[in-house]
Batch of 2 targets.
Target 1
Amino acid sequence: MSSTDLARAYANSHAEQFREQLLDLIRIPSVSTEPQRAGDVRRAAEYLKADLLAAGVERAEILPTGGHPVVYAEWLKAGPNSKTVLIYGHYDVQPAEMADGWTSDPFVPVIRDNVIYARGASDDKGQAFIHAKVVESYLKGAGSAPVNIKVLYEGEEEIASVNLKAFIEANLDLLKADVVVISDTGMIDPDQPAVCVGVRGLTYMQIDVQAANIDLHSGQFGGIVHNPALALAQIIARFHDEDNHVTVPGFYDDVVMLTPTEREALKATDIPAERLKAETGIPEAWGEAGYTLRERIGTRPTLEINGLLSGWTGEGSKTVLPAKAMAKVSCRLVANQDPQKIYELVRDFVAEVAPAGVRVKVSLLSSGEAASMDINDPAMRAVARAYERGWGKAPIYLREGGSIPVVADFRKLLGVPVLLMGYGLNTDGPHGPDEHYSLAMFHRGIDTAIIFLEEISR
Amino acid sequence: MSSTDLARAYANSHAEQFREQLLDLIRIPSVSTEPQRAGDVRRAAEYLKADLLAAGVERAEILPTGGHPVVYAEWLKAGPNSKTVLIYGHYDVQPAEMADGWTSDPFVPVIRDNVIYARGASDDKGQAFIHAKVVESYLKGAGSAPVNIKVLYEGEEEIASVNLKAFIEANLDLLKADVVVISDTGMIDPDQPAVCVGVRGLTYMQIDVQAANIDLHSGQFGGIVHNPALALAQIIARFHDEDNHVTVPGFYDDVVMLTPTEREALKATDIPAERLKAETGIPEAWGEAGYTLRERIGTRPTLEINGLLSGWTGEGSKTVLPAKAMAKVSCRLVANQDPQKIYELVRDFVAEVAPAGVRVKVSLLSSGEAASMDINDPAMRAVARAYERGWGKAPIYLREGGSIPVVADFRKLLGVPVLLMGYGLNTDGPHGPDEHYSLAMFHRGIDTAIIFLEEISR
């Protein structure tokens, strides 16, 4: 038997162990955006380091960054004449609370109908852990792997990888590889493998509007002092025109338009409006006129309101005229939009449309660049062969609506292809309540990822 | 010495005791809108009942309503040939938390520069307690009062007196009086007494916008699912035109326009924009074109946003596409606007302008009618004489921006004049952080309120 066959057999016979280990990892509430969770974030890193050491890597360490640490591991015994694969994933997760609408505690994973329900089950613990188990399957099942392996698990992806770029820059030799593999994207259908060939960039901002210095009585001052909640709504309502185009001047200037051929190809993967309505419960689909639903999420930039806060938000009535109002606003960007430039355009637009009776500030909270991949690259063809053997079907190529800022960083700094082999499903509900991950996807993912290391080694 | 002189002397020599008792009352966090405070609300009622009994009333009881109870007390020994004055005040307060920007704990009153800082100090515990001390000054200082006295303290004014109308209807005999006195309004200047001759009505609503059933990933669904926070902002931005007129069709239909003479008279009390800016910190005054600042808050209806909530409102970034967005919206109304009709107009307008991609609901949370008073009524002339003697100056007549729903109810149900003798200052900051009340106003208020009972008895 080849080392790949031995690794596949090992993964098959250790499925239950893999699953239990994943549940242990998920139980650690490694929410990177909440300062009081820093200890939990570190615990998740410790868990992965110990797991990789037990799998048989030569080296596994927790390395500091300017924020939450990274886990780095390597097994280089395939030798200098073999290729080196750098695997990237993230062990931090989005915030989650029962009050957001979860059916069960987001950090107590439960399995219903062969699906794990928990925060991070899909994004990205489930998908990242696939690769730890690939390493274990090769090193314990076969005693070796067909390529050199480096693993980099990050703890700040959900806060826009704020320190990762500096870490890569400072460790170019350590991270040197022939290809980078990331599993943090989704398929439309469990039987149709999909490879992501484009991720959007991100500019995440906060708008703060202030009128009076303190909250006032709405009867005494309402009507003579501008209401910051009203002013904020008036500003936000200016962001889109009637066709739902973003009105910020210059917003679309650097957008690379798809060719007619590319648009034609995307039609095959379009999202039927009826299915979207059934899946989400919305009365009507929404979006930018002149583009299909698939184009809107994959190829067009957007401007979203992620949060609003002002005044009285409890039960019942409080006749307050708030002093302040706040909105979280983010733009998903496509190649070649520059996140910093988009921030400046939005900031200037807001200053321009802000009413005279309020003071307005727009702050940049985080950002990341967009990236796209070439489907004719040899590494991408190895990806296709891996899916054909492992999943039984050639993959389709998708542009992802989400953002993985590190993709552009790896491409630029390491100068190698970045392969987005996602083993999630678009319906996993990452970032929302009842995030879940199918155990079938987890195990099929391990199998295909094992085969991929053989295909990329050729 | 007359009974009035004896009462004034008693009040003067018991000033410190009165002050300490007021602080004790303020320490009870009787926040009527918070269900977990129901016990505190009742404690405040118990405190007032005990205080009035100790003052020497014939009867003081806590009477149930559909919600928080009322305190009722009476002293009727002036006899059937004397007038009866019904005093109304409220012992419940607005919510308050340090996080709102308070300098010190809102429920631990502190005195700085002869001013009490605490929630309810002015609205309305300080002003309501004036009358309890007037009763005590007469009954303990003089052994009698020149009029029969009834006292009604309510515990639900800050939640729009939701049960008081029914209580009055069910107790018309108990509450029968020749005049009603309310102290829950403010003066512009401590040396210029002011009587309120108009209060605005109120329609308080909540707008709920929902798109998807659950929060979604903004990268996966942003751009194809309408964002409810955006939709809410788009709805709110439709409420006013460029001149800040409310655009809801029919909104102004029942507004009684002031006569040119009335408008001319109001000019004397106009608010200089520079003073408003200095007092509140706003960069520019705001409001409906064509009206002075005084007219805008006293004589024109308004539509205010009292609260906004959607999605992620914590620190940093969360790329959520929220399922829901909520706004608290209230209208201040003038005579003859009907609060229920205004609710229906706003509800229908919102349904009309709501985007197709979201579901919208507008709920009525509370309401109250506007009212205005005749300055030539004999009771109002007694008010003027009381201020001339007690304060040393004839009062000016103001229209209040705020709402006291019970004013219209008393007028309609008891058929007698309702006198708004406010002993607060407009700068007391009710409903906001660092609400405060001047001890000088408290003691001058007691003195003038003692004199008023003599003047109204004539």
Target 2
Amino acid sequence: MKNESITSRDTDFAKWYTDVVRAAKLADYTSVKGCIAIEPNGYAIWERIQSILDKKFKEMGHVNVQMPMLIPEHLFNQEKELIEGFAPELVWATEVGDRKLEDRYAIRSTSETVFCDYYKKHLTSYRDLPKLYNQWCNVFRYEKETRPFLRSREFLWQEGHTVHATAEEAEWETKRMMDVYMWFNHEILAIPSISGKKTEKEKFAGAEYTITCEDLMYNGVCLQDGTSHYFGQKFSKAYDVKFTNKDNKDEYAYYTTWGKTTRMIAAIIMVHADDYGLVLPPRIAPKQVVIIPIGKDNTEVNNLCCEFNKKLNDNNVVSYIDNSEKNPGFKFAEAEVNGIPIRIEIGARDLVNGTVTVARRDTREKINIKKDELTVEYITNLLETIQKDMYNKALERQNKLTFEAHNLTDMEKILNTQPGFIHAMWCGDESCELKIKEIKGCKSRCIVEDGKKIDDKCVCCGKEAKYHVVWGIQY
Amino acid sequence: MKNESITSRDTDFAKWYTDVVRAAKLADYTSVKGCIAIEPNGYAIWERIQSILDKKFKEMGHVNVQMPMLIPEHLFNQEKELIEGFAPELVWATEVGDRKLEDRYAIRSTSETVFCDYYKKHLTSYRDLPKLYNQWCNVFRYEKETRPFLRSREFLWQEGHTVHATAEEAEWETKRMMDVYMWFNHEILAIPSISGKKTEKEKFAGAEYTITCEDLMYNGVCLQDGTSHYFGQKFSKAYDVKFTNKDNKDEYAYYTTWGKTTRMIAAIIMVHADDYGLVLPPRIAPKQVVIIPIGKDNTEVNNLCCEFNKKLNDNNVVSYIDNSEKNPGFKFAEAEVNGIPIRIEIGARDLVNGTVTVARRDTREKINIKKDELTVEYITNLLETIQKDMYNKALERQNKLTFEAHNLTDMEKILNTQPGFIHAMWCGDESCELKIKEIKGCKSRCIVEDGKKIDDKCVCCGKEAKYHVVWGIQY
């Protein structure tokens, strides 16, 4: 049953996206311009993301802290590159009650400044290092055009800020955190992201380099979905973050930051959802199974629902019985639009024949099985199958939308027909990046690490190519 | 071994408090005036608080959401009493980049306005009710005098915002959430809090009434540590939050809010900590047991440490081995200042005699037991004993610091000698509250529900008494 409130994905992708956000009750617009209310269904996904990532961070030795959200102007100004990068988007608090504040305070758009200021005070010896701090919080960036989850003025994220005694260790941290992000996207979100370094032009303001995690949406548009930055000693010099090294000499600390945001929820939607609503990969779904009894007040039906629900919960499958007053058709549609991976329909009539129905959300396939076949193992296996199938489906589409360009004509043709990940060689000059950007705003996504040489020459200027780069149109 | 960095509690309580905060590495001051950095040890306590309370809220049917932190001025102005209560403490964002914003935005100090604005849009029928929403977030209040955790300009909290179809149900919600707070303080934090309604003067701006949870600190000063507000239809009228009731008529929704904050960490310190540092009740301690091996590289010692640590962790006791480079004396002191409930010392020499040492943080008692007596059951029992003993110790002190006053002379005498919870009858007139406040700023804490009549006359004016009230000096 097609959900009437959802525009078809192939007719108007942008409208389809916001329709799904609303129909699945993930978020809504508010009276605060550019800011959303994250509703229970949306926040529950964020809680799943938090719990899985946070556990991983802690296993790796990270600890959580909480730094102030207001940043005095003088602190921000210490790092010029950062303030230049963020200046136009910074919102300033200037008044309290009915009077002026002495200092202007920026509402945090990122927290490098306050973390460095903290570390400056708290590092003495190499024995204090590394410090592996992370915080879960809200940040604010005054974006002009906003879209729920995708680009909201206020959003939620985690920001890791670590300091190390050596460059090697800090670079290793930068890399291993990107590995965590890639693991999370591949294994948990079923999104076949790619990763690599950003070009100089696209890296984070003030970083030595940035490694990025890039997803490809259903419509061939790219989404930056997590970054890990290596700062070397740049910030620690600007903020005077020093320690005494093993040779008893003062040395500036080596600094990294890495973050992933509520934007992940946008990625889940734009990779997996369909015209019937949200489709959640089982490993991230707050509710994995819904059991719907059909035929009112049938003892056998109710008992089976309760017993099986309990069995699933006892085995760490998050399931629930929908025994609300609505009719079964309405319940099916609701489970579907909310993206619940498996729906079990247990009906009085079917039980006479000894069967029950299991419906997969991803394929919308209805499977009739014998009552005795409905076991915890059957469901856990099916959840794993769905997880894998969703990844493979996304990967297959991504492969179809991955192209090679050998000259600007190729590039234009691809971007005008069907955008995607476009592999092309690049000389390394920013002028070529700018020229390519003229084609529908296409940007470098990331440099392919150890990428095979697909040409000798730059796709743009024809000079000697230095890098194998993935290009694309971005959100 | 007395921690040299901690002032004695009986010499200078205020200095002792901040010394403990710093020595236990719970939080530190920052370059952002009045705002603290919550450090790993402090944030870990907050994570324990969050996980226990959040689980309880969810079991009761609450769901989490996230609303914007910036509130447009016009929205705030809709509820006059609220803005009047908060106006002097509100910080306003007025600029973006280098230009003025069209609207002024208040940084949330509480979120009644945005929740009501949301509910206005989302309620239609009584079938939508109740909505039991909660959010975990940061809030900002421009306090003049600040103290880590106790009163910080920015702090973390949970704020529940629920709407109901009937007054009865909303009043029940107001009450049951205070019951949860009381359960949490008594059972988890080992704090024998009292609760009751606030007087009209002390209630939350705009509420019909406020129920409060009040703790008594070691020095006899009171601390408000959680409130639950019943708003009736006041806010829903101001914000036009309507629904169609069972009789198919428009009705304003009945509204409640309730919150508990990082101030709880201040309460834990000021009720339980001592001159040696923090003392954590086992149920809230992020780390419950530390195992310290003594005598380097002794295989028997190391094996026993590892085996027993594993056994504890397998049985849901959070323990760890401190096998850092420091000497044992330093490790003992560190475990002590950090308030870890149980320290197990396993030494080569003691093992020759077949004994190990178990040290309780609360009593600082060292118990020598036979190696075979060191079982998981022994430790879990001891943790429960410590939890109960800490509660009883706090209760005993609270009882000693609970007084009765029958006239203003009594009241003055108590407040000048040793403040505490002062029970006294009150006529209900604000003028008497104000007169009592002249004595060292003493305020009504709460009205004792079904409190026995300890006098016929008001403690202040001598007129007929209406309420049995607890009074005290507050933080």
